């Protein structure tokens, strides 16, 4: 537990202290947000607000992870050490952050609301996602557990194994499945990141949930007995819990500067990185389908865009919502931005609570 407190504290302090310096740097270079022309008119005042705050969040998470493990070693405290699962989370988190940074930088440099071309973003995300998926099926520990498996998971691995016709096909199908999850989460967080503090607050709750899940999985790990129904075959649950706490701490520090009126936005640098981390947690903690509940707000907002676009095309120009993503519909309906954010936080918290309830209930029933 000391590791979680130490890691989240370092990330929180680093973000709180470094962010105002980064804001000052961005302002001096006039690196500001370019607001969409078709967005709510109230957002016009946000034009020019510094963006790419995700750079500091990424730096805080990576630094805190390695510093925490280093300090634990120096203190002689019990530690599970740097693990393959931890490094894989950082790979997907940082890799998606790099893609987002390129997207943000192009927007700023060319003073437009569109950065990378769609195909460029897809290719770069696929490279990172494929690399993560292939590596996640390697690095078995002493018990033969790899960070991920080819089995589709809900609250733990199910009997649905993508390697039903052999390991080669299993690898291909797992890469596709893994990248579907990554694409869904990165888009979900990116679409949610439209109001001050909205995506940040919901992400804190999701990572907090994965911290609790990691602690529980560690306490109920299978050990040498892999046959028990109630134990978990997750390779490095405690290190995942540490990273969940670190991410929560870093985002709490960021939220201080991102709450309305935001002094800085996370940009695609932050939203794609966070989406990548969420996907990594779902895959490595063997809770892939449960992610639909834990990240239910991201799912709801993504569905609003799919419904809006689909209905618009099918109906010849009619709309279901005044504007998509969903949060902007409520803004145009007369809700103040603060009301939308707080009420969506409440919804996000309810989704997280429901997900944790389902996770724990399954263990109780399995006893």
TrEMBL record:
Name under which the protein is recorded: Phospho-N-acetylmuramoyl-pentapeptide-transferase
Transmembrane stretches, start-end: 6-26, 47-67, 79-102, 122-140, 160-182, 194-217, 237-257, 264-283, 289-312, 340-360
Protein encoded by which gene: mraY
Top enzyme class: transferase
Pathway(s) this gene product operates in, as recorded in its UniProt entry: Cell wall biogenesis; peptidoglycan biosynthesis
Family affiliation: Belongs to the glycosyltransferase 4 family. MraY subfamily.
Membrane topology: Multi-pass membrane protein
Phylogenetic placement of the source organism: Bacteria, Bacillati, Actinomycetota, Actinomycetes, Micrococcales
Gene Ontology biological process terms in this record: cell division; cell wall organization; peptidoglycan biosynthetic process; regulation of cell shape
Superkingdom field: Bacteria
Listed EC numbers: 2.7.8.13
Cofactor names: Mg(2+)
UniProt GO MF annotations: metal ion binding; phospho-N-acetylmuramoyl-pentapeptide-transferase activity; UDP-N-acetylmuramoyl-L-alanyl-D-glutamyl-meso-2,6-diaminopimelyl-D-alanyl-D-alanine:undecaprenyl-phosphate transferase activity
Pfam families: Glycos_transf_4, MraY_sig1
Catalytic activity: UDP-N-acetyl-alpha-D-muramoyl-L-alanyl-gamma-D-glutamyl-meso-2,6-diaminopimeloyl-D-alanyl-D-alanine + di-trans,octa-cis-undecaprenyl phosphate = di-trans,octa-cis-undecaprenyl diphospho-N-acetyl-alpha-D-muramoyl-L-alanyl-D-glutamyl-meso-2,6-diaminopimeloyl-D-alanyl-D-alanine + UMP
Keyword DNA damage on entry: no
Binding residues for Mg(2+): 190, 268
Keywords: Cell cycle, Cell division, Cell membrane, Cell shape, Cell wall biogenesis/degradation, Magnesium, Membrane, Metal-binding, Peptidoglycan synthesis, Transferase, Transmembrane, Transmembrane helix
Alphabetized PROSITE patterns for the sequence: MRAY_1, MRAY_2
InterPro entries from the UniProt entry: Glycosyl_transferase_4, PNAcMuramoyl-5peptid_Trfase, PNAcMuramoyl-5peptid_Trfase_CS
């Amino acid at each position: 537990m000391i590791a979680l407190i130490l890691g989240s504290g370092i990330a929180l302090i680093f973000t709180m202290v470094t962010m105002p310096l980064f804001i000052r740097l961005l302002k001096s270079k006039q690196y500001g947000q370019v607001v969409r022309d078709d967005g709510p008119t109230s957002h016009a005042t946000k034009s020019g607000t510094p963006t790419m705050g995700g750079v500091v969040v990424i730096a805080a998470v990576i630094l805190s992870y390695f510093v925490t493990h280093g300090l634990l070693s120096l203190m002689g405290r019990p530690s599970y050490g740097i693990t393959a699962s931890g490094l894989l989370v950082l790979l997907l988190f940082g890799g998606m952050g790099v893609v987002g940074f390129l997207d943000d930088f192009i927007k700023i440099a060319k003073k437009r609301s569109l950065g990378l071309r769609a195909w460029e973003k897809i290719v770069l995300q696929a490279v990172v996602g494929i690399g993560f998926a292939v590596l996640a099926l390697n690095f078995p520990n002493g018990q033969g557990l790899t960070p991920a498996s080819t089995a589709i998971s809900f609250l733990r691995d199910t009997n649905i194994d993508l390697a039903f016709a052999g390991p080669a096909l299993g690898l291909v199908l797992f890469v596709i499945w893994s990248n579907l999850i990554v694409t869904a989460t990165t888009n979900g967080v990116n679409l949610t990141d439209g109001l001050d503090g909205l995506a940040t607050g919901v992400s804190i709750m999701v990572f907090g949930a994965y911290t609790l899940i990691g602690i529980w999985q560690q306490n109920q790990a299978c050990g040498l007995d892999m046959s028990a129904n109630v134990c978990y075959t997750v390779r490095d649950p405690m290190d995942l819990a540490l990273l969940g706490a670190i991410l929560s701490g870093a985002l709490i520090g960021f939220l201080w500067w991102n709450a309305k009126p935001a002094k800085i936005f996370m940009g695609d640098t932050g939203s794609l990185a966070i989406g990548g981390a969420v996907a990594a947690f779902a895959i490595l903690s063997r809770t892939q389908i449960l992610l639909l509940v834990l990240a239910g707000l991201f799912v709801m907002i993504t569905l609003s865009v799919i419904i809006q676009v689909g209905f618009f095309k099918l109906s010849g120009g009619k709309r279901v919502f005044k504007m998509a993503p969903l949060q902007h519909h409520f803004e145009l309906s007369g809700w103040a931005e603060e009301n939308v954010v707080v009420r969506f936080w409440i919804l996000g918290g309810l989704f997280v609570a429901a997900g944790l309830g389902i996770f724990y209930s399954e263990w109780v029933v399995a006893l």
